Every structure is written in C-alpha cells, then in structure tokens.
Amino acid sequence: MSRIGKKPLAIPSGAKVEIKDGSIYVEGPKGKLSRKLSDRISVEIKDNQILLKRSTEIKTDKSLHGLYRALIANMLIGVTEGYGKDMEIIGVGFKAAVQGNVLNMALGFSHPINFPIPEGIKIETPKPTQITIRGIDKEKVGEVAHEIRAFYPPEPYKGKGIRFAGEYIKKKIGKAQATAKG
Question: In the list 15, 34, 84, 152, which could disulfide-bond 28, CB 3.0-4.6 Å?
C-alpha cells in the first residue's frame, strides 16, 4: 500500500535532523519544526538519509508509513525553502491591508474584518487585492489560507470573494438570464 514510505528521504544541505523521545526535530535556515512520531513507525538516519520502517504489515501501519514519510518530507522542504499561498480578492471595493500583526479586510460587509496573523506565518499584501501567505509549516499555511477564504468564499454568480490565485470558479447564469433563454 505504501510505496512512498519505502523511499529514503535525502536530508538537504543546511538542514539538521534529530530523533529523540519519539519525536523528530528538523532545523534549517528558515526555522525549526518538530513532530511527534507514531509508535508503529520507526525512523532512523543513515548516510545523510532518513529511513522509515513500519512495525507490521497491517493496513493502518502501511498508511501511517506513507503519511509520516510525506510529513517529514514537508518539514524538510519547509525549513529549507518554505511554503506560500497566493490569494486574490475580487469585488468592487474589496481590499486587504496588513497593519502590524493584523490583516484588515474590507469585503462589503458593514464592518471591516480583522484577522490576527498567527505566529510563524507572514502575510503580505503587494496590492490591495492580493494576499500572500508565507511560512515554514505547510499545514499552517494552508489552514490560514482557508480561514481567510472562509470570510467570503467566491460566489458562483458574479465571482466576488476571496479565492486562491489561479482558482477557477464555474459561474452560473442568473435567474433573469435563465428565464430569458428558456
């Protein structure tokens, strides 16, 4: 089931990996990450490579084998290169700006939306209609991006809202056009 788990992970230059007390610690030029490991998966470092082994051949262990290999690979990429998500704001008068440790958004509501930026995440607004989210933890970057998107998800009629850069929103025809065509 897990062909991914069997592949060894090469430790990139500039990254340090340490395994102790059932956890893995990864440090690189961008920062430090750690993760608790499952008891069913054993991790060892040999010849500048990380090798993962599972304890048994049951389905759960095979699934965890590939999962932990992917999570450790994401940690290695995060501390060396980092992760990012770009978002677009579409709508008349819709805009965003970073002020200190808060992302302020005007999304057509009667009040501005203030989103506190979590620790370990950098948010930039190169243009008032663009949001760039950066960080070393892939899960946290994706989670923050989805929290921001949830304030005003793109709607299918006019396409207004917050969307990921390059995301395609299938548009529906409105009621007036539907009756005119029918």
Answer: 15
